[in-house]
Design a protein that fits this description.
about 5% helix; eight-stranded antiparallel sheet; mainly beta; single chain; about 160 residues; two-stranded antiparallel sheet; globular
Length: about 160
């Protein structure tokens, strides 16, 4: 069914035990959602025997999540990028800063009024991109985008798989 909206974009911090098992913290608002582009890469292999395909294996390899948002506050950027905030509330990011992976969730409204919910259990974000433009004869909004790499979850589910 077609979707006609996007809203309620949240992230949840991940705490990892020494054994690598994840625990998810309380979700917090990431930003107001404008756009979400989700791309998944699948590794596929075919086994041929007796001149025909006998087996096919398809496994998750990685993915990319690109979010268009209204604004990324310094507090949210500090969490996602592993950066700091100085005494004036300014985001201070160094080239060595790497943010921790987080879980990301949002929902898309369907044409029939129901919602489709998305939760990506392990996303590692990079520095947001921003495009700025002077106000000319017409006004246009400029908003940031942030891209993250979707990774396999460490914690197995009830079927002992890693979603």
């Amino acid at each position: 069914m077609a979707t006609i909206g996007l809203s309620d974009m949240f992230y949840a911090p991940i705490t990892e035990s020494a054994a690598g098992m994840e625990t998810y913290g309380t979700p917090a608002r990431l930003a107001k959602a404008i756009q979400a582009d989700l791309s998944i890469e699948i590794a596929e292999a075919m086994l041929y025997a007796d001149d025909s395909a006998q087996e096919s294996v398809r496994e998750f390899q990685s993915g990319t999540l690109t979010l268009g948002v209204d604004d990324i506050t310094p507090e949210v950027a500090a969490v996602l990028l592993g950066a700091g905030i100085d005494e004036n509330g300014v985001l201070i990011s160094a080239s060595e800063d790497v943010g921790p992976p987080v879980a990301v969730g949002f929902r898309a409204r369907r044409a029939n009024g129901t919602h489709k919910f998305f939760w990506l259990y392990r996303v590692l974000f990079g520095t947001p991109s921003t495009s700025l433009q002077t106000k000319g004869e017409s006004v246009s909004s400029q908003t940031p985008q942030i891209e993250g790499t979707i990774m396999r979850r460490n914690k197995p589910d009830s079927r002992n798989r890693h979603p």
